[in-house]
Amino acid sequence: MDEKIKYNFIKKINPFFFILLFVTTIWLSPSIVNSKKCLTLYDLEIPNYRELNIVKNELNKGTMKDLNDTMFYYNERYAVIVVGLYKDKLHYQWFTNAAQQQYTVLTETYGLNSSKIYVLLTLREEWADVLKINPAIIDYNSTEENISMVFNYLKTILDDDDLLYIAVISHGGDTHHLFFENIKIDFDLWQGIVAHDTYFGLEDITNDSINIFKLKNILDMNGNHSTIDNCVFDYELNEYTKEVNARRIIFVLQPCFSGGFVNDLSKENHIIFTASTEAQLATASFIEYFADGLNGSAPDSNYDGRISLGEVYEYTAGLVYQWIHDNPDEYKGRREYPLIDDNGDKIGHRYHGWFGYNQNKANKDGYTAARIYNLSYEEI
Ligand SMILES: [Ca+2]
Ligand SMILES: [Ca+2]
Ligand SMILES: [Ca+2]
Ligand SMILES: [Ca+2]
């Protein structure tokens, strides 16, 4: 083939070749994706968080500061662990176990002084056989007066170089839920419509069972909040804590609908973690996964040799997703998305698939938590 014929041949074959390549690629790609198995909704909603971590590790490499950069070490560290309404024996066992676990991790793993940890829990003697907490660590019955008293005291002793860690373990409710108490609804339908009034219940051992989901306990006939009050609303928790002076206040909230606390508690120096959104139940043990994460189970996703609070959150969220994924029959169609809000904008975001979460952008949720380590110090 002389040069001229060869040139003409390539000129003819080129467009045809590329069109064929293009069509083949388009035709093959869906069958490659689907060749393993059919994608389910779960697969789309819940990517493998370990794989995501690997991708993110690559992105994060080199972006975190060196260990010897300037760090701010918290002066004094305090904690408040509240167990509210448990209602039945099963939850009594679960919640007292989770509270003990929080206490153990804070004292043994992170060295908090036991005299600086306040545990509020109302014991129920007839269920002593399933009690999982050492009664000696309990400071007060879990009443609204005592909760308010503890935070009032902390207002007088904490300074802006201190850390306060607050864990709430309780059944929770939501005023939207109340209006529809007799109707079986898809909670997710209500997500994001308004910022909900959310609350956690308190135990009344003079009653066998206080049903916090009963309308009469919370709202009067006009739909206003009742003065009969056996729960702590989101705005009440904000009232109790807003004047506590601390460099950081960390909230870890297990109650159902706890995402509804975010808009009330959100503040520049607050790091808020919730078990679910304001429209979701919280059936997975977010709080126990979180304690496990703090206690060394969370992976060092960015290989900087230390575990950040952000890494603990991602580990926790991954396990909650996994738990919901693994229990599809019992909780068919239900979602639970643990939220984080650490940029003070009153909006919580979740780890997977939402644009508001980014550990590397200063104005996004996740940025501050990724720079707090061992509940002891943070990057400055
Ligand atoms: Ca109240
Ligand atoms: Ca709220
Ligand atoms: Ca790390
Ligand atoms: Ca936020």
Task: Give a description of the structure.
This protein is 36% helix and 14% strand. The chain is an alpha/beta fold and 380 residues long. The chain has two domains: 3-36; 43-379, Rossmann fold (3-Layer(aba) Sandwich), CATH 3.40.50.1460. Strand 10 (339-341) and strand 11 form a beta hairpin. The longest helix is centred in the first third of the chain and has 32 residues, at 3-34. It is globular and about 85 Å long. It starts with a helix and ends with a strand. One calcium ion (CA) binds next to loops. Residues 195-198, 234, 260, 263-264 line the site of one calcium ion.
Q: What's the short story on this structure?
A:
This protein is of the alpha/beta class and 380 residues long.
Key terms for this structure?
single chain, 380 residues, alpha/beta, Rossmann fold, 2 domains, binds calcium ion
CATH class of the largest domain: Alpha Beta
What spatial order of strands do you see in the largest sheet? 3-2-4-8-9-10-11
CATH topology-level name of the largest domain: Rossmann fold
Largest sheet: 7 strands, mixed
Shape: globular
Kindly state the mean pLDDT as a whole number? 80
Identify the bound ligands. Answer: calcium ion
Please mark out the parts with pLDDT under 50 across 5 or more consecutive residues, or reply none: 28-67, 178-194, 208-217
SS elements, strand count? 13
Tell me the number of helical segments per DSSP (H or I, 4 or more residues long): 11
Content of β-strand: 5-15%
CATH architecture of the largest domain: 3-Layer(aba) Sandwich
Helix and strand content put the structural class at alpha/beta
Helix content, binned percent: 25-40%
**Count of structural domains:** 2
